Amino acid sequence: MSAQIPFSVVTKPTGAACNLDCQYCFFLSKELLYDAAAQTMSEETLERYVQSFLESSGDGEVTMLWQGGEPTLRGLGFFERLVELCERYRRLTQRVRHALQTNGTLVSDEWARFFADHEFLVGVSIDGPAHMHDAYRLNRGGRGTHAMVVRGWEALARAGVETNILCTVNAANEEHGAQVYRYFRDELGARYLQFIPIVERVRAADLAQAERGWRSGTSALLYRQDGDCVTSRSTSPASYGRFLCEVFDQWLASDVGEVFIQDVDSTLSAMFGSASVCVHAPVCGANMAMEFNGDVYACDHWVEPDWLVGSITSSSLSELAASDKMRDFARLKPDLDKECRACAYLRLCWGGCPKDRFVRRGERAHNYLCEGYRAFYEHATPALRAIGMLIAAGRQACDIMDPALAASLGVRPPTPAPGQGVR
Fold this sequence. Notes:
Blueprint: E1 8-11, H1 43-56, E2 60-66, H2 76-89, E3 94-102, H3 109-117, E4 121-125, H4 130-133, H5 146-159, E5 162-169, H6 177-187, E6 192-197, E7 201-202, H7 207-211, E8 229-230, H8 237-254, E9 260-261, H9 262-271, E10 287-290, E11 295-297, E12 308-311, H10 317-321, H11 324-330, H12 338-341, H13 346-349, E13 357-360, E14 365-367, H14 370-392, H15 403-408
Helix pairs in contact: 1-2, 3-5, 6-8, 8-14, 9-14
């Protein structure tokens, strides 16, 4: 069998359709891409996708990613059919896993049992305690959704489902990193965390319209990676950096080896020369997104007409991954400005995601979040280097929590702000 081109696909069985109306969710506007009353994936498209994905993937463990919109709107029967199709089309040398991102509001005990039985990794979107979460994560009636999400989270916990939390960093929670972290750790018992910065990029002429939200019924504005303004809901670079530093200090003081934070893990991996997330990889262009009708786009953040790669109805995923359009997209990542190329943290950051490069500082655009990234790397890398030394010496990463040992490696213990003590 010939070598396979590595790729991943974020698949949207309900397109942009969602039962919530999160104010910062630009993907709600993607409904405007298609003139379809119901953006739901047919079983025929599902079967074609499963067949193409498995044919185009290598041996060993392969992971299918399910997102939205809200993927559970497609119904439990759809995902039961998915599991059947994977068993039909997988090679004996393949093991299929599934990762699904949900807002959690529709997760019942029945859903949770299904996820547990079929070993789904389920990511739940929560932005912190109720007053922070409910600032922007609203239902169609404009009410907060925190209680509904926690109910779904608890159903997943009862069933023993493997879970993580995806928390956006936005204007409502950006100054409360330690509080958000402790809430996830102590109140929800979460052990795997991702923090995603909200950057709603928009042209100045469209800013007032964007402030009203992105649902097509409210605004006829299709979100594109265009413009040099951001909405009031967006995090600021400085606040984003402080948020990550607060989270890091909480983790370093008491949770090394117990709680896993994507930003920390990816930075540590990069220090060892291995990028683990596309945002901070030296190259990208292998992470496609597929809409409900089989249309494939270059990236989940670039679901817009200019970056439509093709369709699984006429091409295999391996053909799409190797297409000229994907090669063109991959060229966006390494196109860095002089400041990036001279940065001490280049090999940890690689300029961040091209979608956030819209601050003009010369011949090329600079990443809007640069100040935050730099602050985090300056703050965290001394301790992460020490952890790397411990691992290289055959010791456990958690040994860094011994104050005497940390001091011998030149690491000062974190000093929480008043009222922000560690456990």
